[in-house]
Amino acid sequence: MNDTADKPLLLVAACALLDTDNRILLAQRPEGKAMAGLWEFPGGKVEAGETPEDTLVRELFEELGIVTEKPCLAPLSFASHAYDDFHLLMPLYVCRKYQGMPVPREGQKLKWVRASALRDYPMPPADLPLVPIIQDLLPPFRGS
Ligand SMILES: Nc1nc2c([nH]c(=O)n2[C@H]2C[C@H](O)[C@@H](COP(=O)(O)OP(=O)(O)OP(=O)(O)O)O2)c(=O)[nH]1
């Protein structure tokens, strides 16, 4: 059976934003939204007329106040997950180059997290297969 037959396909672009210590920025979904309290990668729905890269440049500014450019977004992987109401297709990019320090502009909590600690932050189910991919990308932390 085709479990996506009667569900819309939702395209969302997401970004693993890294700091100079290779920590990853997670954002906590605010109260009142679906999946409130779970930690996600910054990003959002790809609007009509946008590429996923356009979306991320826009969302990173709107949500976090940082400025980046499309060549600074490197494709890493994607999530494909059947939620009850829609099927999520979510390309995940990595971004190391941006201007400004992320600040929470939409009431969300932000946290810089080491790759080895990602499992300590409950995430939407679609994101779980992305965790080992990010952990493979980043060298283990050897500092104190
Ligand atoms: N940005 C982001 N969205 C994710 C992740 N994982 C995941 O399942 N999603 C889902 C949650 C939402 O259903 C959708 C993102 O949509 P969105 O951020 O534009 O919208 P939203 O539900 O927060 O709220 P709204 O803007 O429609 O009010 O993708 C993730 O890591 N990052």
Automatic annotation (TrEMBL):
One of its GO terms (molecular function) is 8-oxo-dGDP phosphatase activity. The keyword Hydrolase applies. Its EC number is 3.6.1.55. InterPro entries: MutT-like, MutY_C, Nudix_hydrolase, NUDIX_hydrolase-like_dom_sf, NUDIX_hydrolase_CS, NUDIX_hydrolase_dom. It is an enzyme of class 3 (hydrolase). Keywords: DNA damage, DNA repair, DNA replication, Hydrolase, Magnesium, Metal-binding, Mutator protein. Residues 8-136 form the Nudix hydrolase domain. GO terms for biological process: DNA repair; DNA replication. It comes from the Bacteria. Its cofactor is Mg(2+). Transmembrane segments: none annotated. It holds the Pfam family NUDIX_4. Belongs to the Nudix hydrolase family. This is 8-oxo-dGTP diphosphatase. It comes from Oricola thermophila.
